């Protein structure tokens, strides 16, 4: 597959490649230029860490402070036969 650069310096990744790799609008890429081969330019998708946004999510919890310890109900022990 081939593509070309537009007037504003943008490249279009072909639809078949975007679909097979799950690339969507807004994905971030790192551009890597090979020092030995001036014609080789690599794109590598930057994926957020698995726990990205976790701190913000926990900070948004409406309950602040330590959680109360739940009370346990005492249930009679079941008799088991050996």
Write the layout of secondary structure elements.
Elements: H1 15-21, E1 28-33, E2 41-46, H2 54-59
Antiparallel strand pairs: 1-2
Describe this entry's structure for a reader.
The chain has 82 residues and is of the alpha+beta class. The chain has a domain at 15-59. Helix content is 16%, strand content 15%. The protein is built from two helices and two strands. The protein has a two-stranded antiparallel ribbon with strand order 1-2. It is elongated. The relative contact order is 0.10.
* Biggest beta-sheet profile: 2 strands, antiparallel
- The ordered H/E elements are HEEH
Helix content: 10-25%
The number of E-state strands comes to 2
Radius of gyration from CA coordinates: 27 Å
**End-to-end separation:** 70 Å
The shape is elongated
- Give the number of helices: 2
Average residue pLDDT = 87
Structural class: alpha+beta
SS strand fraction: 5-15%
- Poorly predicted regions are none
Largest sheet strand order: 1-2
Give a nutshell description of this structure:
This protein has a domain at 15-59. Helix content is 16%, strand content 15%. The chain has helices at 15-21, 54-59; strands spanning 28-33, 41-46.
């Amino acid at each position: 597959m081939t593509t070309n650069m537009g007037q504003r310096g943008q490249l279009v990744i072909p639809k078949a490649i975007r679909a097979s790799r799950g690339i969507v609008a807004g994905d971030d890429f790192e551009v890597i230029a090979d020092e030995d081969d001036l014609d080789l330019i690599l794109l590598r998708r930057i994926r957020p860490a698995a726990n990205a946004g976790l701190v913000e999510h926990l900070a948004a919890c409406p309950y602040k402070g330590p959680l109360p310890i739940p009370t346990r109900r005492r249930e009679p022990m079941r008799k088991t036969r050996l």
